[in-house]
TrEMBL record:
Keywords: ATP-binding, DNA-binding, Kinase, Membrane, Nucleotide-binding, Phosphoprotein, Transcription, Transcription regulation, Transferase, Transmembrane, Transmembrane helix, Two-component regulatory system. The keyword ATP-binding applies. InterPro entries: CheY-like_superfamily, HATPase_C_sf, HATPase_dom, His_kinase_dom, HisK_dim/P_dom, HisK_dim/P_sf, Homeodomain-like_sf, HTH_AraC. This is histidine kinase.
Length: 606
């Protein structure tokens, strides 16, 4: 661009040029995209673009930072919630031990001779109420953390619900309520009875709470549908205070408590929330209809089909729970049973870190057994190895070595593996129960528990061992796995039996030689064989030899004196005395009896 001059000269045909020059001024303009205003525009556009990019970057950075802060806050909130729930659970667990103490004292108070006063009834009723609240909190914790599982099995639902209803009759009578139960007969199906009971208990407790003397509470149940679409419908209605419409939307919220109508009842505000959790867990629904001063009606609908139970893969828990289930015994029947139990001198080791509770358990058990106590696992394990303990009762949470590790140590040591083991704990989690059984426990109790029930269970386990003793001592053949429950004890019995059989005809085969074969000291072998079979080592050797003698006597061709010699008896009369003591008849009568049986079995038609 700029100013230019265009010059022109002319020429003729002869090639002569004109002396004059013609000049033409020319101006070339600047291209629009190169003008100053174009560059200004470029600068403005660049600035605008940079500003836009910067703004977007700032916004993105702020959004990213906000998201990061939100995540941090969410994590903090979750951790705080988990901390609260864990604290909540730990506190509940810690309360169960002192509650157990109060329950034992209440039992003793109620069991004392004399009139049961109203104060005693109030004392026991409030302990039971506290127990219910703690269990409700622990169940709520399970539901909140997703650790609660459904374990369904085929049940007579009518019987389950009738029992739940009957359990509330006394309370209805005390509150002067008209409690009506209408349950369809013959309802069967697949349910989780424990969770169903929690749901119905909470609804009935709620109904009783918000009703006054003379009001009506109605429990109604029926089934609907057919074949694969059967459902259980449970209605709990009352004619009490009712629920305002504005509260109905929040009634299932956790910690929500109705305050819009006059009420004096206490509560935790988690009952209905827990019910909703449990109903949803069982693939059911719950609805509520209510008006102020017209009562309320809660309706639960649950599927009761078999396929509902088949969706529960974790059947191990249910199997373990059923394994430890003992027949229910009424309190008065239990007291009658305990009266018949005499002091046996059996040596029971009790391990508990709460000294007050330990003292109560010790005092209660001393009426039946010789009791050893300890407050930590390591000391308890030393006692179990040092003393001839017949049964161990241990809390799960003990210092030094927790109850599960203590149980495992007992079951894995040759000196103690035969000792029955009962675990007591405040932990209601299924996983804790699995852990307890996995360590080898024979029974499992959750606090609070009745000490009478504990004695009943101890007696059951000891009698189970007594039956095995009696069968073995009467000469019945039992495989090692039918006598003992651990692999260590199976191997021990098999090895001891084989050692005696390898020296069957030796008259001088002694306990000392047997202990050498077993690689054990005399005292260690004595304690072990006594703990498993309630026999001394000499009695064990004699028992095995007499079993072989009985087998040989089944052959009538073998003379009794030969049998005695073949089984290591050099005195025929002593052999006869020992044989009669074990089998109840003389060797000759035993041989004759078996010969008669053999002849009868050979008769035609037999």
């Amino acid at each position: 661009p700029g100013n230019y001059t265009f010059k022109v000269k002319g020429t003729n045909s002869s090639g002569q040029w004109s002396p004059q020059t013609i000049e033409l001024p020319v101006y070339v303009q600047t291209a629009p995209y190169l003008t100053w205003w174009a560059y200004t525009l470029y600068a403005l556009l660049s600035l605008t673009l940079f500003t836009l990019i910067f703004v977007l970057y700032i916004r993105k950075s702020r959004a990213k930072e906000a998201l990061k802060i939100e995540n941090i806050e969410r994590v903090k909130s979750e951790r705080l919630t988990q901390f609260k729930l864990q604290f909540f659970t730990n506190l509940s667990h810690e309360l169960l031990t002192p509650l157990s103490i109060l329950m034992v004292l209440a039992e003793k108070t109620m069991g004392q001779k004399g009139k049961i006063t109203e104060e005693k009834k109030i004392f026991k009723r409030n302990i039971q109420k506290l127990d219910d609240h703690i269990k409700q909190m622990l169940n709520f914790r399970k539901a909140e953390t997703g650790n609660m599982k459904v374990h369904t099995r085929r049940r007579n639902i009518t019987e389950v619900l009738e029992e739940i209803g009957e359990n509330h009759q006394l309370l209805a009578k005390e509150k002067s309520l008209i409690f009506r139960i209408d349950i369809e007969s013959g309802i069967t199906g697949y349910i989780d009875a424990e969770k169903l009971e929690i749901c119905v208990d909470n609804l009935l407790s709620n109904a009783f709470k918000y009703t006054s003397p003379g009001d009506r509470v109605h429990l109604e149940t029926h089934s609907t549908g057919y074949n694969g679409n059967r459902e259980l419908v449970i209605k709990v209605s009352d004619t009490g205070k009712g629920i305002p419409e504005k509260d109905l939307k929040q009634i299932f919220n956790r910690y929500y408590r109705q305050t819009s109508i006059e009420r004096n009842e206490e509560g935790l505000g988690i009952g209905l929330s827990l019910v909703q959790h449990l109903v949803a867990l069982q693939k059911g629904t719950i609805t509520v209809n209510s008006k102020v001063h017209s009562g309320a009606c809660f309706v639960i609908t649950l599927p009761v089909n078999k396929d509902q139970s088949e969706r529960n893969p974790d059947q191990q828990i249910k199997r373990l729970i059923d394994q430890d289930r003992i027949e229910p015994v009424e309190e008065n029947q239990l007291e009658d049973i305990l009266v018949e139990i005499e002091y046996s001198g059996k040596r029971i080791l009790v391990v508990e870190d709460n000294k007050d509770y330990l003292k109560l358990v010790e005092t209660h058990l001393q009426g039946f057994y010789k009791v050893f106590t300890s407050t930590n696992g390591e000391e308890a394990f030393e006692i179990a190895n040092r003393e001839d303990i017949d049964l161990i009762v241990s809390d799960l949470r003990i210092p030094g070595m927790n109850g599960s590790d203590f149980c495992q140590a007992v079951k894995n040591h040759v000196n103690t593996s035969h000792i029955p083991f009962i675990i007591i704990t405040a932990n209601t989690e299924d996983q804790a129960r699995i852990q307890g059984y996995g360590s080898g426990a024979d029974s499992y109790f959750i606090k609070p528990l009745s000490l009478n029930v504990l004695v009943y269970r101890i007696e059951s386990l000891l009698k189970k061992k007594e039956k095995i003793y009696n069968k073995f001592n009467k000469g019945q053949y039992l495989e090692p796995e039918k006598i003992v429950s651990t692999r260590i004890d199976e191997d021990f019995l098999e090895k001891a039996k084989q050692a005696v059989e390898d020296h069957m005809s030796e008259t001088d085969f002694s306990v000392k030689k047997l202990c050498t074969e077993m690689g054990m000291s005399n005292s260690m072998f004595y304690r072990k064989i006594k703990g498993i079979l309630n026999l001394t080592p000499n009695e064990f050797i004699k028992n095995i030899k007499l079993r072989r003698a009985a087998q040989l006597l089944e052959d009538k061709e073998i003379h009794i004196s030969e049998v005695a010699y073949m089984t290591g008896f050099n005195d025929l009369s002593y052999f006869g005395v020992c044989f009669k003591k074990q089998y109840g008849i003389s060797p000759s009568a035993y041989q004759k009896d078996n010969d008669t049986k053999s002849l009868k079995s050979d008769e035609p038609g037999r």
